[in-house]
Specification:
Blueprint: H1 4-28, E1 37-39, E2 54-56, H2 62-87, E3 91-96, E4 99-106, H3 107-125, E5 136-139, E6 144-147, E7 151-166, E8 175-190, E9 193-194, H4 199-224, H5 235-243
Antiparallel strand pairs: 1-2, 3-4, 5-6, 6-9, 7-8
Helix pairs in contact: 1-2, 2-5, 3-4
């Protein structure tokens, strides 16, 4: 009796071979191959010439094609039925660190779950963490992280001021010039906020996802080792007996 993983391997080969052969039948079978004729010449009198008969043989019949397709398709239907009927009983526990996270998970769902966890692993791995250059604290009001120490930066403004270049004398008035200078106007006090993840938490989540993903893979392998079930019906015969009945 075969195991599920053996049936899956057999199915892959039969499926590719079946599709290739049926495609070949489609490609090489032309409508004119189904038709033939036989011609016999009848002269009107003894003085007329004799002509040899002409004939075109039928190269293929509809029954020939159906017989080939039935044989090929029935084999594929049967091995796929063996896989799917066995899938119904192929189950395994997902065990992480000796504890079962889920019990009796069907192998088909294990395949689905493996894909979901792989996508989740990719997403979390790419998520940013809090800037280590800042000291962060939780902000209950916003549900975010905020910088524990706001930063102060100067804000300046430009003002104009008249300066005396040359003082007034008896002969000449004073010479002045209007200049622009930057003076301190105030300070910006900046508090940073972040919705990123703490690095230790990200590392812990990634580790748990990795552990669970490995456990799912192991469970899938265990489920794929299930023995083939008994009592699988003859699917191909049932299908073609109905379709091709007179």
């Amino acid at each position: 009796m075969a195991r599920l993983n053996q049936i899956i391997a057999i199915e892959k080969g039969i499926k590719s071979g079946t599709y290739a052969k049926i495609t070949e039948i489609h490609n090489r079978t032309k409508p004119e191959m189904y038709n033939g004729f036989e011609k016999r010449y009848e002269k009107i009198d003894e003085a007329s010439e004799d002509l040899p008969p002409d004939r075109k043989h039928i190269e293929i019949t509809a029954q020939d094609v159906l017989t080939q397709v039935r044989k090929l398709t029935s084999e594929l239907m049967q091995v796929t039925a063996r896989k799917d009927w066995t899938n119904c009983v192929a189950k395994a526990n997902i065990v992480v660190d000796g504890q079962a996270v889920l019990h009796d998970v069907p192998v088909t769902y294990l395949l689905f779950l493996e894909k979901q966890l792989t996508d989740l692993q990719t997403l979390i791995t790419k998520m940013p963490v809090l800037d280590p250059a800042e000291r962060w604290e939780s902000d209950p009001a916003s549900g975010l992280f905020r910088s524990a120490e706001p930063t102060r930066t100067h804000r300046t403004k430009k003002v104009q001021e008249a300066i005396v270049k040359y003082p007034a004398t008896v002969e000449h008035p004073a010479q002045t010039e209007l200049i622009t200078k930057d003076v301190l106007a105030g300070h910006w006090v900046t508090t940073k906020f972040s919705g990123a993840m703490q690095k230790p938490r990200k590392e812990a989540i990634v580790e748990r996802v990795n552990k669970l993903l490995q456990a799912v893979k192991q469970a899938r392998e265990a489920a794929n080792g299930a023995d083939e079930v008994d009592g699988i019906p003859g699917v191909g015969d049932a299908v073609f007996n109905y379709v091709l009945r007179d």
